[in-house]
């Protein structure tokens, strides 16, 4: 029913609209494809429910929106990926053979808005962006428990002019992850709960990754997470670059590693830790970052010994550690950050 309504609306002259009314509906794997004759509006008022088993998905996605210009997704409804079975049965550490389905893929979507919708319990990433430009998420919600593996809230790759504003993201993995080829990304007024915080990377695992630049994260609250704001790159493998990054006005509550650059990122020992990372990091500002750290090392900048980080600034950082494993400290390796105002805890 959804596919035939979509085809009709997409092929008709002028702008088209597809409404999913209030209620709960099972929805199989669908590709909502363009190009369409005009702007498209997908108004989701009800809750769409994915097949519970990953084997019922033909591929690594559930709902895919592709080749669309001037798309609006809205309506107050939800996409429920029913991930619980997949997380348990297929929780396979780094060794998953077949990628689990992503709730919502936006492939080559331009000049578009996603607002007032919720993604629940995705089997893998909740949202994945590829080749998209001028796409805004506002009042977008993500809900999944802390134990849901690899369920990044929004993953951005090879996309530019992406805005994420006034949103609430609670999930088991990265709140927002920013991968290769992401440019001009603005994240403001976002709350991130449990999971791994806001991450740039990981980068340097694959050959010829496009640069990441122009990432602005402002007025966000990050709570009960493993990391706060993080840049992570793999040692030993491939080159790349990360530049013009600003994290400003961020509140950390009960975060294990509130500020972290990790150029030794190597989960499941998939790399040679003895060789430094080849990814260049430059022009990074951490400004007005306050709150609490769950570990004594509140600031950890571990840069590469072969390409040390350049132009890193720590400005008015105040992170309190109250636990018994103290004293609290800031640690910097292969980087000499410019320190403006106070830096608490001291170090670097
Ligand atoms: C970006 O997309 C929005 C929403 O469709 C649109 O109003 C705006 O004009 C677009 N901006 C540019 C520069 O095309
Ligand atoms: C900062 O974000 C919070 C929501 O997390 C919002 O209530 C507040 O208005 C924002 N402040 C500014 C100055 O935008
Ligand atoms: C801190 O976060 C951890 C991990 O999410 C959580 O288990 C713990 O209850 C939180 N502590 C407080 C005081 O909220």
Automatic annotation (TrEMBL):
The gene is LOC106865649. The active site is at 196. May function in depolymerizing pectin during pollen development, germination, and tube growth. Acts as an exo-polygalacturonase. The keyword Cell wall biogenesis/degradation applies. Belongs to the glycosyl hydrolase 28 family. Its EC number is 3.2.1.67. GO terms for biological process: carbohydrate metabolic process; cell wall organization. It catalyses: [(1->4)-alpha-D-galacturonosyl](n) + H2O = alpha-D-galacturonate + [(1->4)-alpha-D-galacturonosyl](n-1). Its main location: secreted. SUPFAM superfamilies: Pectin lyase-like. This is Exopolygalacturonase. InterPro entries: Glyco_hydro_28, PbH1, Pectin_lyas_fold, Pectin_lyase_fold/virulence. It comes from the Eukaryota. Gene3D superfamilies: Single-stranded right-handed beta-helix, Pectin lyase-like. Keywords: Cell wall, Cell wall biogenesis/degradation, Glycosidase, Hydrolase, Secreted. It is found in: Secreted, Cell wall.
